[in-house]
Specification:
It holds the Pfam family ArsP_1. Keywords: Cell membrane, Membrane, Transmembrane, Transmembrane helix. InterPro entries: DUF318 (IPR005524), UPF0718 (IPR052923). Belongs to the UPF0718 family. This is Permease. The chain is mainly alpha-helical. The protein has one domain (about 40-195, about 205-345). It is built from 16 helices and no strands. It has helices at about 10-20, 20-35, 40-70, 75-80, 85-95, 105-115, 120-130, 135-145, 150-175, 210-245, 245-255, 260-270, 280-290, 295-305, 310-315, 320-345. α3 (about 40-70) packs antiparallel against α8, α9 (about 150-175) runs antiparallel to α16 (about 320-345) and α12 runs parallel beside α14. The protein is globular, with a radius of gyration of 22 Å. It starts with 11 loop residues before the first helix and ends with a helix.
Length: about 350
């Protein structure tokens, strides 16, 4: 029999894990401001709450949309992009990369299945580069935080980056580079997300199917909790940023004219990856402090390309030269996107 009189003593690791929760930070920040700078407590809290409420309609629609796409099995649509001629595949892979509602582990068996069936690396690279940058919920959250021009610019940059990478890989392979690029791959998923959606078909009218209704409810609740948690954290951090970080400091590093701030933002964005839901509110704060629109676009794209799930998918399936090509194409594409967006606005 277990002696419960001694009580449960959680490990230090378990305690640290709980403390790293976004909810802990959300609660701790106002508490810390109340102790250290009580005169600004109201300003910080009101800023964060107003920003969150302003984004709430986008959150609701994004949660509904991603739940609907998952329940309908919309991932199967993406497989259609990898059929036909190589040039057609590159265009469709870059375009559809932003539509796939994959979780991070579903990307790997999906791409493994494509490669096993002979899909060209150029089209797969187009998908890899565009997929982490945008999806329907990210588009809506970005529009809510930074406005529709920025959100549309990011979506266009995602497609352009996919095309850029896809055709660059196609050219490199024609010149004899990146030959035999793939590691040994297996056909199974084994990540706990269920079978690969590659051989499935979407069912848009799924209300009569209880399993799909269950998927919808599950995805709706999970994504609502996920988005609320991360966006509350993002707007709390944005409130701190706007209140306490001097505007002239931001302007000196990533403000002003020229290419230098855009290049700096890309190289800062890659190691400082923030997920696509946290980044827009923080960038909104940075732009209020003097960050240029081009630098913000460069930062966001470089950070998305360098996300752990995106890099893990590439690393697990291809050899190191292809992985290096992915990173080079990602950061160079982020810089080019920032320059073009800066010119456009």
């Amino acid at each position: 029999m277990v002696n419960i009189s001694q009580g449960y003593k959680p490990s230090i690791g378990a305690v640290l894990t709980r403390l790293k929760s976004p909810w802990t930070i959300i609660a701790f920040v106002p508490f810390l401001v109340a102790i250290l700078d009580p005169t600004n407590l109201g300003a910080v809290v009101i800023f964060a709450v107003k920003a969150f409420i302003g984004t709430l309609p986008f959150i609701v629609f994004a949660v509904f949309l991603i739940a609907y796409l998952k329940a309908a099995g919309a991932e199967a649509m993406i497989a259609e992009a990898f059929k036909g001629r190589e040039t057609r595949m590159i265009f469709l892979a870059a375009l559809f990369g932003g539509l796939a509602p994959f979780c991070s582990c579903e990307v790997i068996p999906f791409i493994a299945g494509l490669l096993a069936l002979g899909a060209p690396l150029s089209a797969v690279m187009a998908f890899w580069l565009s997929s982490p940058l945008i999806d329907p919920p990210t588009l809506l959250i970005t529009a809510g935080a930074l406005g529709w021009p920025f959100a549309i610019g990011k979506a266009m940059s995602a497609v352009a980056l996919g095309l850029f990478g896809g055709f660059a890989i196609k050219l490199a392979m024609k010149r004899g580079f990146l030959t035999n690029p793939l590691r040994e791959i297996s056909g199974g998923g084994g990540c706990g997300c269920g079978p690969s959606p590659f051989n499935q078909k979407p069912v848009w009218q799924f209300l009569s199917e209880e399993p799909r209704r269950k998927v919808f409810r599950k995805e709706f609740l999970q994504n609502a909790f996920f988005l609320i948690k991360w966006l509350m954290l993002a707007y709390t951090l944005e409130a701190l940023l706007v209140t306490y970080v001097p505007a002239d400091l931001i302007a000196k590093v990533v403000g002003g004219d020229g290419v230098a701030p855009i290049v700096i933002a890309a190289f800062v964005g890659m190691p400082a990856y923030l997920n696509g839901y946290v980044a827009p509110p923080l960038l909104a704060g940075l732009m209020e402090q003097g960050m240029t629109a081009g630098a913000a676009m460069s930062f966001m794209i470089a950070g998305s390309v360098s996300s752990i799930p995106a890099m893990a998918a590439v690393w697990s399936l291809v050899k190191r030269p292809v992985f290096a090509s992915y990173l080079i194409l990602g950061v160079s594409g982020a810089i080019l996107s920032g320059i073009l967006f800066q010119i456009a606005v």
